[in-house]
Specification:
By secondary structure, the chain is an alpha+beta fold. Helix content is about 55%, strand content about 15%. The protein starts with a helix and ends in a 5-residue tail after the last strand. Keywords: Kinase, Transferase.
Length: about 700
């Protein structure tokens, strides 16, 4: 897994954990004190066994008596002169500004039966959303109202702000009557159920809900201001501006929606707060879509974004200029269209996930959550469920996710800048080192050139010496041959055997010199054929090296052959041309014989190195002159003070031996102490082959 994928995974799982904690806190804050009520029968809810101190408050949902097309006064119920049209469940709404039967008015009634221990205590009703003009009576007394309950031709005026009403209760049945009327909104009636319980519990629940909404609103506002500041500092970053506008619009919507702050601070402006809640929703969604467009421009079609802008822009404008009944009719169609748009966004994000785009997983998760909140709001609006509008929370989660993605991008850009700075510093250091290295290289090159120049000079000198040596080496025997032949022709000497033998030796010496020069030239030019075979190291010493014992000891010199020893398993085998290796040893042994006095010693020793066999030929002779030692492997170089005459060697043997060793992948070296002896050493590659025992 790459670093980029690891960072994305940490971002995704960190946000997922945060989301779970956030959702858990939201669920606790919204629903911790809600308890389902016992079933109601014939308009009577029996709470005589309900422990308010332990179970807390509850929702008055089922068993409400409905009286259509009339505002029934408490006195009429006291006379038992009214019969309910049906029993309904809250929330209960009608559409088009009229009830199902065409009238604008309705009365809801529920009797709550309490035990004797509740007599004289104060209870409260939590009213969140009615969106109709209403009056609430408890045990015949008016305790709460909102808006104006009018009759034609004077239309009623709705109230959309929440409230809490407190009242004393008695043992037995406590009658709750709610009169509602609507002509302004598209959907009138009671949009949410009532919360019933001890006054302190109801107030605490509302405060807890209010704190939760203020927290979400403050978080959205903070995110909006933060992104606005980012845009102010970097005006080319349009995504920060779009995210900021989205967060600020949603924070304003929370302030005016249901139990919002502004509905408490200025309830008289409730119609304007309603317009503002619709406007912020309609205007915020296109900006939210624009965020995804800016994050993933290659995956999203611009025509879809443009269409959503036109559609939502028209709805937002209608919320400001059209009558209440007209713009409230657009909410459900807008939510359905929003579901389609979010489904398209989910497709885009899935495409982005497949392409491994940054933050695509997180945004896809947030869009899934938003789809769930939109479904929740649709069901809430239709009265199918009793809940809260959760879309602002999902918008906050998505905005927070975008903040994480943007922060990740900025952090990555900062890290990239740090990396580039570090790379530049490292490059600068490397350049300085390269300049230093180049300077040193130039100095080395200059030294090499000087050495090459000197070497060329030496080669030229060697060439001249070679010509002179060849001329001299060939000239000496040829002069002798010429002298003897002239003497024979002139009759100075007779063709006796000794003179013929001398002529033969001179011719043989010249032939050997020519053959050695020919062999050395072929070796240096790589024209010599080597017949490589696998030879067991012990056989190499026993069959090829031990044969020198007679030659050495015949001259009164002690001979010693030391075979190598190893602790490794397997059979040591060398791949060599045995004739050529024998030629090397022959040259080294004969050189040792020429410089070792009688009573001395010549030792052939073998040692194992790392995949190598090291062979040494050591003598106790007089050694090599230190001035001659650096040139000992050059052509026609001969030591001084040898036991035998110069005719015994051509001065090419060590040069030929070195070339043979080099063709075997080894190096021929010499160590000599003048007056004490010399050691010639070379190495060849070997392999330990496992031995199989049958």
């Amino acid at each position: 897994m790459t670093t980029r994928h690891k960072e994305a995974a940490r971002l995704f799982w960190g946000f997922t954990v945060l989301l779970i904690l956030f959702a858990g806190g939201a669920a606790f804050a919204l629903f911790a004190s809600r308890q389902p009520e016992p079933p109601a029968q014939n308009g009577i809810l029996d709470l005589s066994e309900w422990d308010f101190s332990q179970n807390g408050s509850l929702l008055l949902t089922e068993g409400w008596e409905l009286y259509r097309n009339r505002l029934v006064e408490p006195e009429s119920f006291a006379l038992n002169s009214q019969k309910p049209d049906e029993y309904v469940k809250l929330p209960h709404m009608w559409s088009g500004g009229r009830p199902e039967t065409g009238e604008e008015l309705a009365t809801y009634r529920l009797q709550v039966k309490l035990g004797p221990e509740q007599a004289g205590t104060r209870k409260a009703l939590g009213i969140r959303d009615i969106q109709s003009g209403y009056r609430i009576y408890v045990n015949g007394q008016l305790y709460g109202d909102g808006g104006v309950l009018g009759k034609s031709p004077s239309p009623p005026e709705a109230a959309i702000y929440p409230s809490i009403i407190g009242f004393p209760v008695t043992a037995g049945n406590n009658e709750i009557i709610v009169q509602v009327a609507n002509s302004a909104y598209q959907r009138g009636g009671i949009h949410s159920t009532f919360t019933f319980g001890n006054s302190l519990d109801i107030y605490q629940y509302r405060e807890r809900t209010l704190v939760w909404k203020i927290s979400v609103m403050a978080a959205l506002a903070t995110l909006g201001i933060y992104h606005l500041a980012l845009f102010w500092m970097r005006k080319r970053d349009s995504m920060s501006l779009v995210t900021s506008i989205t967060c600020l619009l949603m924070s304003v919507r929370i302030m005016v929606l249901d139990e919002g702050i502004l509905t408490f601070l200025a309830p008289s402006l409730a119609p304007w707060w309603s317009r503002l809640s619709y406007f912020t929703l309609y205007a915020g969604i296109p900006f939210l879509l624009a965020v995804i467009q800016l994050l993933y421009p290659r995956e999203m079609n611009k025509r879809v974004t443009r269409t959503v802008w036109i559609f939502s822009g028209g709805l937002a404008l209608s919320a400001l200029i059209l009558p209440v009944r007209a713009y409230t009719c657009t909410f459900i169609p807008f939510l359905v269209a929003l579901l389609i748009v979010l489904g398209y966004c989910l497709y885009v994000l899935a495409y982005a996930v497949a392409r491994s785009r940054t933050g695509a997983w997180i945004n896809a998760l947030c869009v899934l959550i938003m789809i769930g909140t939109v479904v929740n709001d649709i069901l809430l609006e239709q009265g199918v469920i009793q809940s809260y509008s959760l879309m602002p929370i999902s918008v906050f989660l998505l905005a927070f996710a975008e903040t994480l993605v943007i922060a990740h991008r900025y952090s990555k850009a900062y890290v990239d800048v740090e990396n580039v700075s570090g790379q530049l510093a490292q490059l600068n250091q490397q350049l300085e080192e390269k300049i230093k290295q180049r300077t040193e290289a130039l100095e080395i090159t200059n030294a090499h050139l000087m050495y090459a120049n000197e070497h060329l000079h030496q080669l030229e000198t060697s060439r001249r010496e070679l010509i002179a040596n060849v001329t001299h080496e060939l000239g000496t025997p040829m002069t002798s041959i010429q002298g003897y032949m002239k003497a024979l022709l002139d009759g100075v000497i007779q063709p006796e055997k000794q003179y013929i033998q001398l002529l033969y030796d001179k011719i043989q010496m010249a032939d050997r010199l020519v053959q050695d020069l020919f062999d050395l030239t072929k070796l240096e030019e790589g024209q010599t054929t080597f017949h490589m075979v696998d030879v067991i190291v012990d056989d190499l010493f026993d069959e090829y090296f031990s044969s020198f014992q007679w030659d050495v000891e015949n001259q009164g010199i002690h001979f010693q052959l030391l075979k190598p020893e190893t602790t490794q398993e397997g059979l040591p085998v060398a791949r060599i041309d045995p004739i050529r290796i024998r030629q090397v040893i022959t040259n080294l042994v004969h050189n040792a014989l020429n410089y070792t006095e009688e009573g001395g010693a010549i030792i052939i020793r073998g040692e194992y190195g790392r995949d190598r066999l090291v062979i040494q030929v050591t003598d106790t002779g007089k050694g090599i002159d230190p001035q001659l030692l650096p040139h000992i492997f050059d052509r026609f170089v001969k030591g001084n003070g040898k036991k035998r005459s110069a005719r015994d060697g051509s001065g090419l043997g060590l040069a030929i031996a070195r070339e043979i060793v080099m063709h075997h992948g080894g190096i021929l070296t010499v160590h000599s102490e003048y007056g004490k002896g010399s050691t010639f050493q070379f190495d060849i590659p070997i392999e330990f082959i496992p031995m199989v025992v049958d």
